C-alpha cells in the first residue's frame, strides 16, 4: 500500500466524496461568456468600429477570416508550429531576409529586436522623437536593454535626414557618452512616408560605422501599397524589420520580426525569455495570412478615402497639420474657431455616434464612407455656426518660437457608453 505522509493526509478523499467535490469545483470553474445578446452586441461593435477614427488597431476579424483561420495547423509554436512557420518563411522571403519570427505584438517585436542587437552596454538607440519605440513603449529600451535613447526632432517636421543622423550619432571612445549602436527608423511615421533615398543614405552611413539599422514597419504595408514598391526594396536598408498584422491589415493579433538567420535564432531565445513564446498560434498565423491576401489589396481604397477626407476638411477651412500620405491625417480645427472637444461632443450625440480622439484621424479597412461623410457634416455645421457667431480666421502670425509645434493632440475618445 502506498504510504502517504501525515502532512498530506488531509488531501485524501473517499471516491464518492471525490465525485461530489469535483462537481462542485467544476461548477465554480465553468464560465459562459456568450451573453444572450452577443450577436447583436457584436453587430453594434462592428458598427462602432466602422465609425471609429482613433486608430486602425480597432479593426476586427471578419467571419471569413475566422473561418479560414480555423483550418490552420494545430502545432505548438515553441517547437515550430507549421502554419506559423509558413507565415514566418513567407514574410522573410517577401522582405528579402533570411528568417522571420511571429510575435504577440509590435511592441514585443521592436523591443526584442533591440535586445537582440544590443550586446554590451553602454549603448544608445537613435530615433525620431515621435517614434513609437521611444514614446509609446513604456520606456522599454531602457528597461529591457538598459539603453539610452537619442530622440531627434527632424528640422523638416517630416523625417530625419542623413545630416541629422550624422550630427547626432554618438561615435568614438569618449567615456562620457553611450555610443549609438542602433538607428531605429519608423515607416510610416504618423502615416507619413519616409523617402526611400534618405533611408538608403542613412543606412549606408550607419553601416559604414559598423552600426545597426532597425525599422519599425508596423505600417510598412501602407508604404508598399501607396508607392507601389516591393517590401524587399523597402526592407533592404535594414538589418531587422518589425511588421504588424493587427493594425491596417485587420488581423486580430500579431507581428513578425525579420532579419538574418542568426539574429532571429537569438531573438527566438529572447522571445521565450520574455515570456512571449506562444503555443497553438496556427489560428493567429492563418488570420494574418488571410489579412495579407484579402486586406492588403484594400489599402489603396483606404488611402483614397483618407485623401477625400483631407480635401473636404481643407475646403471647410480646417488646417491640415500632417497630410494624408497614407491612412492618417492630423488636423487643427482652431482655424475655423472650433475645438476638438466641440467636434467630439457633437459626434458623440449623433444617432450613430462617431468615436474621435484629438488631432489624429485614422481611416482603416472597416471605415465606411458614411462615417467620413458624417464627420465632415459635423465639422461643416460647427464651422457655419462659428462663422454666423462672428468668428473670423486670424491672419497667419510670424513664427516667433523655435519652429516646433507638436501636432499630435491626444484626447481620450468620447463614447456614448
Ligand atoms: C508605429 C507603431 N509601432 C509599434 C506599435 C506597437 O504595436 P502593438 O500595439 O501591437 O504593441 C504601434 C501601435 O500602434 C505603432 O503604431
Structural summary, described in words:
By secondary structure, the chain is of the alpha/beta class. The chain folds into two domains: 63-296, Aspartate Aminotransferase, domain 2; 299-388, Aspartate Aminotransferase, domain 1 (Alpha-Beta Complex). Helices cover 43% and strands 12% of the residues. The protein contains 16 helices and ten strands. It has helices at residues 15-29, 38-50, 63-69, 82-95, 106-117, 132-135, 140-145, 162-168, 196-208, 220-227, 231-235, 261-273, 282-295, 299-316, 340-348, 369-388, and strands spanning 99-103, 124-128, 148-152, 180-186, 212-217, 240-244, 255-259, 319-322, 328-332, 360-362. The strands form two sheets. A seven-stranded mixed beta sheet has the order 1-7-6-5-4-2-3, sandwiched between helices. A three-stranded antiparallel beta sheet has the order 8-9-10, covered by helices on one side. Helix 15 crosses helix 16 (369-388). It is globular. The protein starts with 14 loop residues before the first helix and ends in a 29-residue tail after the last helix. The mean pLDDT is 94. Bound molecules: pyridoxal-5'-phosphate. Pyridoxal-5'-phosphate binds next to helix 5. Pyridoxal-5'-phosphate (PLP) binds at residues 57, 105-107, 110, 132, 186, 216, 218, 244, 246-247.
